[in-house]
Specification:
The chain is an alpha+beta fold. The chain has a single domain (5-174), classed as Peptide Deformylase. The protein has 4 helices and 7 strands. It has helices at 27-40, 132-145, 156-161, 163-170; strands at residues 5-6, 45-47, 57-61, 76-98, 101-119, 125-131, 180-181. The strands form 2 sheets. It has a 5-stranded antiparallel sheet with strand order 2-3-4-5-6, with helices on both faces. The protein has a two-stranded parallel ribbon with strand order 1-7. The protein is globular and about 45 Å long.
């Protein structure tokens, strides 16, 4: 089932997510829905808070980047109860967008390497290192688990310049190509 995407301004996107366990009801169905929603909306990653669930789960498929970044070919992973252990390497700008912040793309500065601890969909435990575009995609989705959006990484002046666009998203004055959940107007905190 394709789930609606939570829009910028919705309080769910600002909450820190909680760990889950193997006994989470309907876990397999939720994971299937998360993958299906990511593919249907043309995302390369999707975090549970973006579908209105504050749990520490996200999925990525970096394959669309394979022509420019060959190391991303065939990389499809689920990250459950993820914790970034270390960020390192050179800080690099790269243009990012987000399904929860449609039609806005900005250059964001992030570390080029990470080490992350997580479980996969079969509950196998991993501690892996990623770099380059994979580290970037993972950090973007991981931020959602922490209640952080990519626009939060922008300098204040740039965010001020985007204020009207962000307000339009928060107030449902947009027409995205997929279903979205918008915040009740009294709950909007920009």
């Amino acid at each position: 089932m394709i789930l609606p995407i939570v829009a910028y301004g919705h309080p769910t996107l600002r909450k820190k997510s909680v760990d889950i366990d193997k006994d989470m009801p309907d876990f397999k169905k939720f994971m299937e829905d998360l993958w299906e929603t990511m593919y249907e909306t043309d995302g390369v990653g999707l975090a549970a808070p973006q579908v209105n669930r504050n749990i520490r789960v996200f999925v990525i498929d970096a394959d669309p980047f394979k022509e420019k970044y060959p190391e991303s070919a065939g990389i499809q992973k689920a990250f459950i109860n993820a914790q970034i252990i270390e960020r390192s390497g050179e800080e690099v700008y790269h243009n990012e967008g987000c399904l929860s912040v449609p039609a806005i793309h900005e250059d964001i500065l992030r570390e080029s390497k990470i080490k992350i601890h997580y479980f996969d969909e079969e509950w196998n435990e991993h501690e892996d290192e990623f770099e380059g575009i994979l580290a970037r995609v993972i950090q973007h989705e991981y931020d959602h688990l922490e209640g952080v959006l990519f626009v939060d990484h922008l300098p204040g002046i740039r965010k001020m310049m985007l204020r009207n666009k962000l307000n339009d998203i928060a107030k449902a004055k947009i027409s995205p190509p997929y279903r979205m959940i918008f915040a009740p107007s009294k709950n909007i905190k920009l």
